[in-house]
From TrEMBL, chain A:
Record's keyword terms, sorted: Adaptive immunity, Cell membrane, Disulfide bond, Immunity, Immunoglobulin, Immunoglobulin domain, Membrane, Secreted
One Pfam family cited in the UniProt record for this chain: V-set
Keyword field contains Membrane: yes
Subunit structure: Immunoglobulins are composed of two identical heavy chains and two identical light chains; disulfide-linked.
Residue ranges occupied by any Ig-like domain in the UniProt entry: 1-90
Any one of the GO BP annotations: adaptive immune response
Protein name as it appears in the record: IG c867_light_IGLV2-14_IGLJ3
Gene Ontology CC: one annotated term: immunoglobulin complex
PANTHER family: IMMUNOGLOBULIN LIGHT CHAIN
Length: 110, 117
């Protein structure tokens, strides 16, 4: 099972919006609505930000949103804040009844 | 409050065995899958496998099948990840996480495993 494809890095200025893509196949991202996104700050455990493509857990800012088109899912962060600087990982359920993560994207807030 | 508390950091030699733990509290431990995730130094997250403590149904990533064993003791609400013969390449942070659906909502704090001669 190959990792999902994410850009290695993205950046944006405070207040701007950025989008992180996550590309898989019809056997994972494209085949199921079980795409989730995680934020990880250095030295910390991952934190769930989006589940089932576009749902936000309680307590997660509405500046975070998710979507999917075909085999590509996306995480959009609007109104960038300094505290958003972190690594972001997508994940998807697969046709093998397993899960797969993306390679991760480092978000830098300029 | 849902919590997953993992066992402490380990330093082992190549060839040694190891079992790390993840204790759940604040919810019905037997009703949710528990997954294990590896993060090698400076690298991304890798899904290793998952167990349903209610009946010990277990699934493994092909990359980790045969390399590790996932188990659970529902009487003490604890899941385990074990190795029979560690390698230097097993050096990593290992996380457990609860799976309520198609995602992982609560994560343990991580267990750092260092394998060095």
């Amino acid at each position: 099972q190959s990792a999902l494809t994410q850009p290695a890095s993205v950046s944006g200025s405070p207040g701007q919006s950025i989008t992180i893509s996550c590309t898989g196949t019809s056997s994972d991202v494209g085949g199921y609505n079980y795409v989730s996104w995680y934020q990880q700050h250095p030295g910390k455990a991952p934190k769930l930000m989006i589940y089932e493509v576009s749902n936000r857990p309680s307590g997660v800012s509405n500046r975070f949103s998710g979507s999917k088109s075909g085999n590509t899912a996306s995480l959009t962060i609007s109104g960038l804040q300094a505290e958003d600087e972190a690594d972001y990982y997508c994940s998807s359920y697969t046709s093998s009844s397993t899960w797969v993560f993306g390679g991760g994207t480092k978000l830098t807030v300029l | 409050e849902v919590q997953l508390v993992q066992s402490g950091a380990e330093v082992k030699k190549p060839g040694e065995s190891l079992k790390i733990s993840c204790k759940g509290s604040g919810y019905s431990f037997t009703s949710y899958w528990i997954g294990w995730v590896r993060q090698m130094p400076g690298k991304g997250l890798e899904w290793m496998g998952i167990i349903y403590p209610g009946d010990s149904d277990t699934r493994y990533s092909p990359s980790f099948q045969g390399q590790v064993t996932i188990s659970a003791d529902k009487s003490i609400s604890t899941a385990y990840l074990q190795w029979s013969s560690l390698k230097a390449s097993d050096t990593a942070m290992y996380y457990c996480a609860r799976r309520p659906g198609g995602h992982y909502d609560y994560w343990g704090q991580g267990t750092l495993v260092t394998v060095s001669s």
